[in-house]
Every structure is written in C-alpha cells, then in structure tokens.
Amino acid sequence: MRMRHHVNPLTAGLNSYDGRRLKLELGVPVELEVGCADAQFLFERARADGRRRYVGVEVRSYLVDEVNAQAEAEGLPITAVFCNANHHLLELLPARSIDRIYLNFPDPWFKKKHRKRRMINPALARDLAELAKPGADVFIQSDVWGVALDAMDAFERSDDLFTNRAGAWTFWRDGNPYGARSWREQHCEQHDLPIWRIRYDRGRT
Predict the structure, then answer these.
(1) What CA–CA distance (Å, rounded) separates 140 from 53?
(2) Which domain range does residue 89 map to?
(3) pLDDT for 19
C-alpha cells in the first residue's frame, strides 16, 4: 500500500530555485500538475492525448527523476521539474502559457501548527492566475474536507481572477472530466472514500 510521504515546503533548501525556464512549443497546449508525485495522472493524460505538453512540479527530487525516466522510456511528452510551487512557478513558466492546471490531493498537514505548510493558499492562486491563459481550466481535488475548504477559500477570494464553474463557493459535483486518475483518486474510489472537487475558469482580465 502506498503512503503519503510529506515534505515540508518551508525547508530552507526548497526556497531557492536553480532551474531554467521551460521552453514550450508554440501552438502546443500545456497542462500543469502542481505536486505531481509519481505523475500517474499525467501519464494517463499523455497516453490518451499525446498532442499536448504535460508538466509536473514536485518537491521530492527522487520522484522527479523517476517520472522523467519513465516518460523518456515511453516516449511521452511529460516533463517533471524539481521546485517549490509556492515560490518558483513564475520562474519556471512564462505568463499566460498554461491551458489546464491540476491540483490533485495536496498534502493535508492535519496539525494546526503545520497548516502554514499547505500548498494551496492565496499566493499560489495569484501565481496560477498569472500562468494560466484566459479561460484556462483549473481543477482541484482532495479527500480531506479542511484542505478542500482552504483551497476554495484561496480561489474564491482571488479578486475575481477565477470563476467557479459550479457557482460561487460550490463544489463541482460532476466527477473528474479528464479521463485520468492519480493514485490517491484511484484509492479513494476503490475504498468508497469521499472526494471534494472544485473547478474554476481563469477570467479574461
């Protein structure tokens, strides 16, 4: 059975980024998963539609290496990058370059004193708004009620940068529309565990 292995995003070594800005091909739609882990979700997306570019951001370097090795072996257009999404997304990717953004089951950090380590916050929402193309789709999933509420709060209060497709302060109830599942989503469905989903559109401004 797989377990969640959390990495403290506030660790000093994750506050600097020595990578380069990704080069993206003109005319090729780009999908970004923030906190991709083993990138099972992106691999399923890429196998279904190889005409897009898939980028995964992850703070566990060993997973980044494994994802890139597997993508090369399968010849899939997936790139994993080792960086802290809460600090370096704007260094990694150009503005208004992303067509879809996924935040699948971020680490919950249950203890109150650790809540500041949660990935989805207002600053991340603003960074994603800068990276997203006008009308881009943002999809959030969590099996932890508190994490889902925090994520909704961050996006709903983002100065009208995003529009909730289900209605303001409302969860998305039509399931996962992308034909791909992360390991955590697969586990939750197999064990009949609840999943809270939120779906946003990036505004035109």
Answers:
(1) 20
(2) 24-202
(3) 64
